[in-house]
Each structure stands twice: as C-alpha cells, then as structure tokens.
C-alpha cells in the first residue's frame, strides 16, 4: 500500500488549521501516528496522483502466479454448499452459468452489502426472511445482514470569492495536466485537511472527523452551483445506531435492500449538532471568516435546535463506509468467529468490512486491508496462537 501526501492542495487548508488553533485545537502532523486528536492534513492511499486500490497493491503484483485465475465481469449467484461445507461459488458470466470449485475453502469478500446478500442467497441467514423469498434454509443465522453501521456525514457549505477551488477541476485543461503529469486538481481526493474532535471531552477517543474541502460538495458531489464554494463536513465516527441489509428478491442480480437507520438515538443527533456548532464557530474565526461568503447549507436562517435537527435528518449523507453486516462475534450474535470462519458452515470465511464488530473510528479502507491480511495469515494456519508462539520464540532485538 502506498500512503502519501497530496500533490495538489488549495491555499485554504492552512486557514482551516489556523481556525482550529484559534479555538484551542492543536495541530496534528500525523493522524496515523500515536494520537488521533487535532487538526492537520489528511494522507491518502494514492500513488503518483492516482488512487492506489487493493487491486493495484495486491492483485496486479500477483497476476502472473500460476495458481491465480481472475474472472472479471462475473456475478456470484451463491456459495455452493454440500453437507454444511462450502465447495465453490456459482456465478454468471456473459449470460452463462458457471461454478468455481474450491479444494480447500471459499473466501467471501463481496463487501458489507454483497457478502450478507450472497450468504442469504445461499440459504444462510434469518430463516423467516429466506422463506419470504422462497430460498431453502441451509442454516438459520439470524445475525447475517444485521448490525449495518455507517458514518453519518453532514455538510455545511459557503460561497467563496477566494480562488482556487476544486469546483472547476473537471475542466479539460486540468484533465490534460493530470494526464501529462499526474499532478494538479484531479489528483486531489477532495478533502484536504481534517480535525479529529471529541464532541464530549469525557469520551475516550475522538467521535468526529471534521473535513475541509475547497469545493461545493452536496448530495454526494452530484449537485453543482456553478460558482466557487467551500465545504466543511462533520463525519460522525462514533455512531451507535445500526441498520440492516436484506434481500429485495431471490434474484442475485437484484440489489439488496439497505437500511442505514442512521441517527436513531437522540444522543447521536445531539453530538452532530455540537459538531455543527463547532463548524460554524470555525467559520467565524479570523482565519476563515474573510474567505467564506454566504452560507449555502444549512443557510443562516436555520439556527434553532428544532429546525437544525430536521435539516440534519433530511440531508445527512453516509460516508461510503458500510460495515458490520457479517460481524465477528460468538455463535448466534455474530456471523464469523475471530478467524473469520462462518459459524455453522465448514470451509467458508468472510474477509471484508462486513466482519467489523463496529464501524472503525476512522476511514474504513485501511482497516479492511488489514482484515484481508489477517485472513491470509489464518488461511496459512498462522492464527493468533501461532503468531504468539512465533513472537515468543523470536530472538529479542535492541
Ligand atoms: C466513493 C467512495 C469513496 C471512498 N473513499 C474512501 C476513502 O477516502 N478512504 C477510505 O478509507 N475508504 C473510502 N471508501 C470506503 C472503502 O472503499 C471501503 O471501506 C472498502 O472498499 C471496503 O472494502 P470491502 O472489501 O469490504 O468491499 P468492496 O471494496 O466494496 O469490495 C467488494 C467487491 O465485491 C463485489 N461484489 C459484490 N457482490 C458481488 C457479486 N454478487 N458478484 C461479484 N462481485 C460482487 C463488488 O463489486 C466489489 O468489487 C470509499 C468508498 C466509496 C464508495
């Protein structure tokens, strides 16, 4: 994995960090270091101006291995089960059905939406729900698809007269620059700087990631104003509410039904309102006030708690961090054991964000890669006991 600093930054991020300092929030030069609290620049898993995906990092370097075969454009329909054991994967590709057979085990990695869907399509899930869709129950597993967690994210935006911003980043001249040099605006991953902050000082760790982006970001970036703007988002990284992933039908090509159920508890709404208060305080400090014009969302008219709560509930987005729908836990409560084996089914593991017992208090990509690396250890028989024995046997180093 390549973790790097950004190749293009607006000049405004420093003002954001200075604004934080005005409110007594210190600088943090490395959020991935010992401390998460504080304000500073975000790092990204990019390399030479491009996102560096898990496929770039792990799959491409292994592409020539004799034992590896990759079938793209295939949709897995179900895990083939025989006498309580996973023996392969049934899939469709270019209109044809096929099966990949597993000699040792099947590792499911379809993500927090796809993995529970595939388990349910295979007859592993809440029995009444499977029967609703006419699926034979192979194993009653009530926790499959339960417990979905996300990071609720609210955005506050302002017009700005201070250039540059990323609002024109798709202009052909920037695309040409990026193609030629892998530098410039398209190399940005939008959010430049952040603050990790505790909405209640008695909390053991930050429960908010406050994100600064020099662009109008609203409705997942699909809405444009046509004019330069700036955005500060409040990502709630300590949520408690949970949703679920359920089947819409028994058709594997159908998308599952996703219920995020965010902000169910009043305490979560209170925490988000405190974070929005902080953002408005930041916007009013000397370093930022001169750069921010009219408040576009929620808008200066939306201030009292009742209206702000209604606005939050109506506009809150998710941060593309779905987790926990096949979570690690004891049989009955969880779907997989600590070595990621599905309870009650032999030779089947899950290795993706769905196994997290609760959503991480930070972005989910790197933790998911860590889960995959641990899974590789488990497959190789290097479970926790073996690792501990190896560590104990290793010679001490200075
Ligand atoms: C727009 C966006 C931006 C993000 N930005 C960040 C970020 O900046 N930092 C960060 O840490 N995280 C970010 N994330 C989150 C991060 O990408 C996820 O946490 C991570 O990819 C989860 O990995 P996963 O293996 O659980 O699932 P995925 O990466 O979703 O992998 C699951 C794969 O399974 C495939 N699949 C599912 N069902 C089937 C099926 N039936 N047949 C065949 N294939 C199937 C899917 O197509 C997908 O390729 C972002 C996510 C999105 C969507």
How would you characterize the overall build of this protein?
This protein is of the alpha+beta class and 398 residues long. It folds into 2 domains: 12-53 and 150-318, Glucose Oxidase, domain 3 (2-Layer Sandwich); 74-148 and 322-391, FAD/NAD(P)-binding domain (3-Layer(bba) Sandwich), CATH 3.50.50.60. 26% of the residues lie in helices and 21% in strands. The protein contains 10 helices and 19 strands. The strands form 6 sheets. Strands 1, 11, 12, 13, 14, 17 and 18 form a 7-stranded antiparallel beta sheet that branches. The chain has a 3-stranded antiparallel beta sheet with strand order 4-5-6. The longest helix has 19 residues, at 266-284. It binds flavin-adenine dinucleotide.
Shape: globular
Proportion of beta-strand residues: 15-25%
The assigned structural class equals alpha+beta
Mean pLDDT rating: 95
Q: What is Rg? A: 23 Å
The CATH topology name of the largest domain reads Glucose Oxidase, domain 3
Counting DSSP H or I runs of 4 or more residues, the number of helices is 10
Order of helices and strands: HEEEHEEEEHEHEEEHEEEEEHHEHEEHH
Taking the sheet with the most strands, its summary is: 7 strands, antiparallel
Q: Give the number of DSSP strands.
A: 19
In the CATH hierarchy, what is the class of the largest domain?
Alpha Beta
Q: What is this structure, in a nutshell?
A:
With 398 residues, this protein is an alpha+beta fold.
Question: What are the key terms here?
Answer:
398 residues; 19 strands; FAD/NAD(P)-binding domain; binds flavin-adenine dinucleotide; seven-stranded antiparallel sheet; 10 helices; Glucose Oxidase, domain 3; three-stranded antiparallel sheet; alpha+beta; single chain
């Amino acid at each position: 994995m390549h973790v790097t600093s950004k190749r293009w930054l607006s000049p405004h991020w420093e003002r954001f960090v200075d604004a934080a300092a005005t409110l007594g929030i210190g600088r943090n030069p490395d959020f991935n270091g010992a401390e998460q609290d504080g304000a500073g620049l975000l790092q990204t898993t990019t390399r030479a101006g491009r996102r560096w995906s898990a496929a770039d990092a792990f799959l491409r370097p292994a592409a020539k291995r004799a034992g590896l075969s990759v079938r793209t454009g295939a949709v897995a329909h179900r895990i083939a089960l025989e006498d309580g054991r996973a023996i392969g994967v049934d899939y469709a590709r270019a209109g044809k059905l096929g099966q990949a057979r597993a000699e040792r085990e099947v590792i499911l990695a379809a993500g927090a939406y796809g993995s529970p869907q595939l388990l349910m399509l295979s007859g592993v899930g809440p029995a009444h729900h499977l029967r609703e869709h006419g699926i034979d129950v192979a194993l009653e597993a009530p926790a499959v698809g339960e417990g979905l967690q996300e990071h609720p994210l609210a955005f506050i935006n302002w017009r700005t007269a201070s250039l540059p911003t990323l609002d024109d980043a798709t202009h052909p001249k920037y695309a040409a620059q990026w193609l030629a040099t892998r530098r410039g605006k398209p190399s940005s991953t939008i959010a430049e700087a952040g603050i990790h902050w505790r909405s209640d000082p008695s909390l053991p760790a930050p429960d908010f990631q406050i994100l600064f982006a020099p662009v109008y970001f609203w409705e997942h970036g699909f809405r444009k104003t046509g004019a330069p703007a700036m955005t500060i988002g409040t990502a709630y990284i300590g949520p408690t509410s949970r949703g679920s992933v359920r089947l819409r039908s028994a058709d594997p090509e159908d998308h599952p039904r996703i219920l995020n159920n965010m902000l169910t508890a009043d305490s979560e709404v209170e925490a988000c309102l405190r974070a929005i208060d902080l953002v408005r305080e930041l916007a009013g400090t000397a370093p930022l006030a001169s750069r921010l014009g009219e408040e576009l969302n929620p808008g200066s008219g939306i201030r009292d708690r009742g209206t702000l709560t209604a606005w939050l509930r109506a506009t809150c987005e998710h941060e593309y961090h779905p987790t926990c729908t096949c979570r690690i836990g004891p049989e009955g409560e969880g779907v997989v054991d600590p070595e990621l084996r599905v309870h009650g089914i032999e030779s089947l593991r899950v290795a993706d964000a769905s196994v997290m017992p609760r959503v991480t208090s930070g972005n989910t990509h790197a933790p998911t890669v860590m889960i995959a690396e641990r899974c590789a250890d488990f497959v190789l028989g290097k479970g926790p006991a073996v690792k501990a024995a190896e560590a104990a046997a290793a010679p001490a180093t200075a």
